[in-house]
């Protein structure tokens, strides 16, 4: 990510703790090794590479396989949190019923973007904040209404 927002990382941890998280291989590799796997969560890593391994994580090769494994790791009907990258977001948004998005009030250059939510999504809550750095941001929850 082209920004550093500790408040967002803390929110992500609070929100996902105890739930499985699904990410792509590049997202996994972008997490510093000392923080992998993310503690208190089943870490699922989706990759096309059949022989790839991730110490401390479960490797899956399709979104469907990730969903099945996530169900095995959340007997209390907890949520599966998709944390990127862009290709996985694009696949998951088609079947998700809730999206929690951090909106930052600043433009950033990048080479990958989360997909836009279409008209079937409606905002249900918004918490606006100012980071210690002065950056303004909001945690926004959307629900699918189809």
Please describe what this structure looks like.
This protein is of the alpha/beta class and 146 residues long. It has one domain: Dihydrofolate Reductase, subunit A. Helix content is 23%, strand content 27%. The strands form two sheets. A four-stranded parallel β-sheet has the order 3-2-1-4. The protein has a three-stranded antiparallel β-sheet with strand order 5-7-6, with no helix packed on it. Helix 2 links the parallel strand 1 and strand 2. It is globular. The relative contact order is 0.19. The mean pLDDT is 93.
Task: Set out the fold topology.
Elements: H1 6-16, E1 21-24, H2 25-30, E2 43-46, E3 58-60, H3 63-72, E4 81-82, H4 86-92, E5 98-104, E6 121-130, E7 136-144
Parallel strand pairs: 1-2, 1-4, 2-3
Antiparallel strand pairs: 5-7, 6-7
Put the structure in a nutshell.
With 146 residues, the protein is α/β, with parallel strands linked by helices.
Task: Provide key terms for this protein.
3-stranded antiparallel beta sheet; 27% strand; 146 residues; Dihydrofolate Reductase, subunit A; 4-stranded parallel beta sheet; alpha/beta
CATH architecture: 3-Layer(aba) Sandwich
Number of strands: 7
Assembly state (oligomeric): single chain
Poorly predicted regions are none
Number of domains: 1
The CATH topology annotation reads as Dihydrofolate Reductase, subunit A
The 3D shape can be described as globular
Helix content: 10-25%
Query: How does the helix and strand content classify structurally?
Result: alpha/beta
* Proportion in β-strands: 25-35%
- Termini gap: 31 Å
- Number of helical stretches of at least 4 residues: 4
Q: Characterize the main sheet.
A: 4 strands, parallel
Radius of gyration: 15 Å
- Mean pLDDT across the residues is 93
- Trace the largest sheet across and list its strands: 3-2-1-4
CATH homologous superfamily title: Dihydrofolate Reductase, subunit A
CATH level 1 class label: Alpha Beta
Helix and strand element order: HEHEEHEHEEE
């Amino acid at each position: 990510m082209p920004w550093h927002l500790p408040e967002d990382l803390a929110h992500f941890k609070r929100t996902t703790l105890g739930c499985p998280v699904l990410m792509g291989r590049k997202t996994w590799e972008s997490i510093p090794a000392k923080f992998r796997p993310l503690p208190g969560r089943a870490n699922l890593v989706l990759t096309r590479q059949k022989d790839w391994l991730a110490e401390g994580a479960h490797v899956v090769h399709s979104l469907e396989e990730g969903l099945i494994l996530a169900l095995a790791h959340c007997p209390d009907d907890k949520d599966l949190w998709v944390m990127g990258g862009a290709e996985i977001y694009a696949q998951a948004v088609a079947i998700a019923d809730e999206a929690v998005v951090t909106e930052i009030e600043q433009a950033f250059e990048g080479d990958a973007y989360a997909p836009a939510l279409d008209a079937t999504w409606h905002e249900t809550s918004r918490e606006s904040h100012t980071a210690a750095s002065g950056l303004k941001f909001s945690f926004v929850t959307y629900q699918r209404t189809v």
